[in-house]
Amino acid sequence: MREPAVYIVDDDPGLNASLAALFRSVGLRTEMFQHPQPFLELAHISRPSCLLLDVRLPGINGIDVLEQVGRIGWTMPVVMISGHADVVMAVRALHAGARDFLEKPVNDTVLLQLVQHWIRWDSQNYACEVICDSIRAKLATLTEREQSVLQCMLRGQPNKVAAHALNLSVKAVEGHRINLLHKMGVQSPVELVRMVSSCPKATHNPMRCSREHGGRGGAEYGCPLSRKPR
């Protein structure tokens, strides 16, 4: 995992320099932007991170920037800061996805503790996503029939029930289960179910188990922590 970073978007160069010195004093990589556009044009952010975003920026409202961050698909925690805060503004920022809202002047100790908290949170989130990415890559190698058999396993259906639901022989289901274990790199059905369940939305397509449509209603699976490339 790459080292975490704090991104600061604020049009006050003095504040940017002060905050950068604060975060670098505890070993946090820091990148500063006086205008949001260069930040928004970053190709991706492939590291755990936290964004400090000023509400009032040249030519644009910081909350609008926050909403653009959401549309891009970046999921790093965002802390809004403002020297002209009010309740309506704070509520709007939180509804737009900000994790916290602080008024200037910001207490260094409070801010540092807050940013470190969200960096730890995003690091855990990032690690989970790496695991889910690996699971998704393995699931992508499964055939449609193997996906259907996997769905039956996730529903706790014995081989006979799965065979009846999928209109297959019990021997065919057993063969697909063996292939599943091999492709997913596990030793037992219990380990397989635990792996896929740890990232319950690991597949982008529903996997069903029924005679008519490969499922009896079946649930959709997809990682709740999934993030688009940052």
Q: How would you characterize this protein structure?
A:
There is one protein chain. This protein has 230 residues and is an alpha/beta fold. The chain has helices at 13-24, 36-40, 62-72, 87-95, 108-139, 144-154, 159-166, 170-184, 189-198; strands spanning 5-9, 29-33, 49-54, 56-57, 60-61, 78-82, 100-103. Helix 6 (144-154) packs across helix 8 and helix 7 (159-166) packs across helix 8. The longest helix is centred in the middle third of the chain and has 32 residues, at 108-139. It is elongated, with a radius of gyration of 23 Å. The two termini are 14 Å apart. Residues 203-230 have low confidence and may be disordered.
Structure characteristics:
13% strand, single chain, 9 helices, 230 residues, disordered C terminus, alpha/beta
